[in-house]
Amino acid sequence: MQIIETKGNQNLLNREKTLFLCSKMTPIGLYGYVFKWTDSLTEKDCIACFNSTDMESEVLKALLVAKVPAILFVMNRFTDVNNIQIEQALKENRMLIVILRRDEPKGKGSTPRLRNEYVLSLCQHVVCGYVNKNGSVFPLLTGRKDVVNLVDENAYSMAAEPTDRHERWTVAQDKMLLRMFYDDMGIHAIHKQLHRTYAAVYARLHSITQPEELLKGREFEDYVLSLLNIQEGGELVLQEWQGDKSYGIIKPENNSNPDFVFRYRQYEFAVECKWREKLSRNWSKDLFPTRRIENYRHFSKVRHMPVTIILGVGGEPCNPELLYRIPLEEVISITSEKRSIVDYLYPLLSFDVSLFLQQEEKPKEKTYTLNEKRKQFPNAYKPWSTEDDKLLITLYNENRSIKELMSIFKRNEGAIRSRTQKLIGKSNGEE
After folding, report:
1. pTM
2. Domain spanning 213-367, CATH architecture
């Protein structure tokens, strides 16, 4: 592991540090034991932690609300840029964000384990919440004498916590709940303010807010709609827009339908939208699970309309760096590795309706391979580096032409305009 970037008070690295560790599947009934510990901390302490699980995220929020100095370790890049509590802690010089990158070769172990080992080497003490003996954290602590366990076996056996369902939430309580939630104060602060159990707070939040994944999905759907340029009274009509609604484990059947159904003149077509921050190692299974694809095929057959999958990757849901247009009938070519997903890259910033109609209704479109694109633009679809971004902004402010920028960065016009728009938005606070 190596440190590639830091943000905040670097002097915190020189202080005596305690690393908080907790297994991923921590029962909510154990939250009280963990937060009893966070309540005992003061500004004299310095806590190192991660933010990759629900428990870690909540502990970090509790530390920041209590103004306890904290060091957050993240991998590759920091994404929680609009967190109110983090912004305030950085401003008050009581937080450090350390961005790590793996430099160990494959075969040396999993990245989370290597990350944990590295941070453990930087800390003088370890405090554990719940530790699953069959999990990845437990072996790292074997033989260490500087470990404090907040939860013992007796506590775990008593972890079932009542949710006080009998007591209804008032409008005033809901307002307070939402205000504290959107101020990133965390479940512990809400628990103390409203005198509700952690389970009750957790359940209420899930019933009246949308998870971040759903919000990002909705943001990408809005982006796709903008590319279709629907006009009131125009020939293209949005007929259906599915929402991923649920009540606990109960979900309506139409949740498995594509996101949009459109009518264009006498034709109908459906569109499914997906956005990913990056493609995972098992991206094919993630994007095209067998059951979901079969649902789309059934929908296409019953409703007699084609289905197209629009995939955004990287950037933000409202401005992805890469865009793919994949007809449903082509999915099997990708999953069977007969064709690369790169073949379905879509370089334009708008959609022609004809692309979504039945095969016999749409004109033949020329497919360019990535290699062909890179003959003209060698950097096509490559990630933008920090240095490239800085240079792009500098040249943009010098009023360099688009053609000059295309020549310098070896990218097409759409890539230059899209990246410039994104960077200018960031510099103006339009995240």
Report:
1. 0.57
2. 3-Layer(aba) Sandwich (3.40)
